[in-house]
Amino acid sequence: MKNSDKNDEVRINRFLASCGIASRRAADQYILDGRVMVNGTVVTKPGIMISPSRDEVIVDGERFAQPEARKVYILLNKPRNVITTNSDEKNREMVLDYIDVKERVFPVGRLDRKTTGVILLTNDGTLAHKLMHPSSNVKKEYIAVLAEKFTPNLLQQLTGGMRLKDTGEKVSPCRAKLLDDGMQVLLSIHEGKNHQVRRMFETLGFEVKRLERVAYAGLQAGELRRGEWRYLSRNEVQELYKLTESQ
């Protein structure tokens, strides 16, 4: 719209979806049916851009203001012995203890207490749900430091879609690469079963001394030290949405 702030613009269907009115596809149909007004004018083009903070949007006679809180997306390099929950009855350190923002955010998925590395936090429930959905196939990369050397002849067993020894549960095929003469293994998975990486190595008789998630959905810690965080860039957020477009 004419009076929109370019830095604040979003597609109207995305805005309506963020307000919980309808999915983006259904929002497009609302527009085609003439049920949506922007600044007093009925809109007929689903692809128009609006500024949620400055444009008035009315659907079926009801005004929808800007969503309650701005959407924030945060990447944290989680330290060891920090838990990924929003509350803890044992008063242990939580990932939220490291985040200083006014918005109420929550972690996307979990890293166990001993595992370090990248974790995403947000208040965008729609995106979080899509990223955590099993069909999203979000890529997660870990470096496992082992108590003893991992031999190349075991790589096929590790990556071929094994059954976990403790429960008999089957995991999907994955990718792995030996590092540091086999004392470390870079593992890339698309699932998120509880303690999955540790259990995979335990199935083959190896103890994981340290475990770090070095990438999640293409996001890496970069220069972030343990306990440090940063906001995602607009491009990074867009890439996450692209990754989950089919959800």
Observed structural traits:
25% strand, alpha+beta, 6 helices, 4-stranded antiparallel beta sheet, 15 strands, 9-stranded mixed beta sheet, Structural Genomics Hypothetical 15.5 Kd Protein In mrcA-pckA Intergenic Region, Chain A, 2 domains, 247 residues, Pseudouridine synthase, elongated
What does this structure look like?
- With 247 residues, this protein is of the alpha+beta class.
- Helix content is 19%, strand content 25%.
- The protein has helices at 12-18, 24-32, 125-132, 155-159, 196-203, 234-243, and strands at 10-11, 36-38, 41-42, 49-50, 57-59, 62-64, 73-78, 106-107, 116-122, 140-146, 175-179, 184-189, 208-216, 219-220, 229-231.
- The strands form 3 sheets. Strands 7, 8, 9, 10, 11, 12, 13, 14 and 15 form a 9-stranded mixed β-sheet that branches.
Condensed summary:
The protein is of the alpha+beta class. It has 2 domains: 6-64, Roll (Structural Genomics Hypothetical 15.5 Kd Protein In mrcA-pckA Intergenic Region, Chain A); 73-239, Pseudouridine synthase, CATH 3.30.2350. It has helices spanning 12-18, 24-32, 125-132, 155-159, 196-203, 234-243; strands at 10-11, 36-38, 41-42, 49-50, 57-59, 62-64, 73-78, 106-107, 116-122, 140-146, 175-179, 184-189, 208-216, 219-220, 229-231.
